Amino acid sequence: MSAIALTGVLLANIHGLLIERAGLLGLTLMLLGFGAVLVGLHGLRATQFGLLVVAIGAANIFRIRQIRQDIAQIQVAMQSG
Known about the structure:
Layout: H1 2-11, H2 14-42, H3 47-80
């Protein structure tokens, strides 16, 4: 999934943003699931690493929201002129 997101970054156009968002969404779901499984299976021993994985997932969510805002700005710019 991170390779898909990286491909989107390298394209550097509207299609790249959409591809990056799709890759980050898949990666985020996997990270959040992995973090939950870590804490669920190993309890307190895995809490720190589980929280790190969840924090990376949260950063991905922040980037996904930024991409959504960028796409909305591009749509407005295309409609206005």
